[in-house]
Amino acid sequence: MIFQNLEPPTKVHPFNVSKCLRTSHLAKNPKTRILCSLKRSIQLALSLLANGAKGSTLDEFLKFLEVEDRNHLNSVASDFVNKLSGSSTEGGPALSLVSGVWVDNSLPLNPTFVTVAESVYRGKAEVVDFQNKVKAEEVLDKVNKWEDSSNRIVLANALYFKGKWAREFVKSSTKNLTNHKNQFVRTFDCFKVLMLPYKKSVDENAASLSMYIILPEEIDGLLPLTEMVCSDPLFFKKYVHDPYPKRVTMGRFWVPKFKIEHGFEAKKILQDAGLKLPFSAQAEYDDLLLNPGESLTVSKVVHKSYIKVDEEGTEAAAVTCISAVFACASVPPPPVNFVADHPFMFVARDDTSGMVLFMGHVVNPLLE
Question: In sequence order, what are the residues at sequence separation of 6 or more whose Cβ sits closer than 8 angstroms to the Cβ of residue 289?
């Protein structure tokens, strides 16, 4: 499949942080096996860095992240971090996010910034001797093996996720085009949406998470479908949550197992999307450093993710999807096939709050 390069969005709203990363990376790497783009993870890391910015640099962060001020910024981040923490309680999905800022030891950190990083973001803010090659490589290996001793600051984020489905697949039944009956699915002219709920924690206040498999009808329809999903913050309200769900009979049903371990450098993509000043030599990070006026340039934005989906995370008999077409009560609808034998999107989402944790796409699940 060949995809055309995309122009960067002219207006960045929360979904466009994910959109600009995904569509740009997908357009430039059309044969990528798997891509996982963590909208919330990157937003959280940028929000942490914004706490060290001042003046026009801070203003650009706030505009890009669409928040009014630092209080609003940290309130949004705190809500997300707290929800994320609640998603890993007993019986529920294992979901953890780590963000950090590493700064050269010639630039001591502002204690206020360190306090915010640790208390609000539950992250790390540490000084490192980047001129010491051994020490530098130890830190850089943690964030994705960026071997560059000229670094003065590194911003990094990582997410790990593994969840069990509400009911699991029987491994002996996971064969090509295994049939599963009486499930919910929602169909449209150009795509289908399948919902796979995760087993919920025993904690009643924990997040209610589901994975959505969004399958384009056309074999080469992944890129336009990705643009559609990522550019519309009301996508799930419009196309997934129907107030009158109707059970339909499934025909052929097949979703591949896949494992994702993916990382890439996102700084250039963010610059193309409009976040320019924070990555330039003119950036002001006086609130990050103990001594204002120091020259500081962000050198890398490392983005890395891992997720595994297999039989333990999927039980076809427990799938809850929604039909878009309502037939007469006396005439049952025809069976709906859901065969993910070509590139598709997946989205992990908290169905209670509507918060999207991450999105990704699978091009070829057979390659390691």
Answer: 52, 103, 107, 108, 109, 110, 296
Kindly indicate the confidence band of residue 54, based on its pLDDT and cuts at 50, 70 and 90. Answer: very high
Q: Which of 191, 196, 231, 232 is CA-nearest to residue 312? A: 196
Query: Which three-class secondary structure state does DSSP give residue 124?
Result: strand
For the full predicted model, state whether its pTM sits above 0.90. Answer: no
Burial 239-271 (b: 16+ CB within 10 A, else e): bbeeeeeeebebbebbbeebebebbbebbebbb
Residues 6+ apart with CB under 8 A from 130: 104, 105, 136, 139, 149, 150, 151, 152
Residue 162 in 3-state DSSP?
A: strand
User: What average pLDDT does the segment 111-115 reach?
Assistant: 91
- Is 189's pLDDT higher than 50? yes
Domains and CATH numbers, the chain: 14-162+259-308 (3.30.497.10), 171-256+310-362 (2.30.39.10)
What span, in angstroms and rounded, lies between the C-alpha atoms of 123 and 99? 5
N-terminal to C-terminal alpha carbon distance within the chain: 19
- Judge contact between 326 and 244, C-beta under 8 A: yes
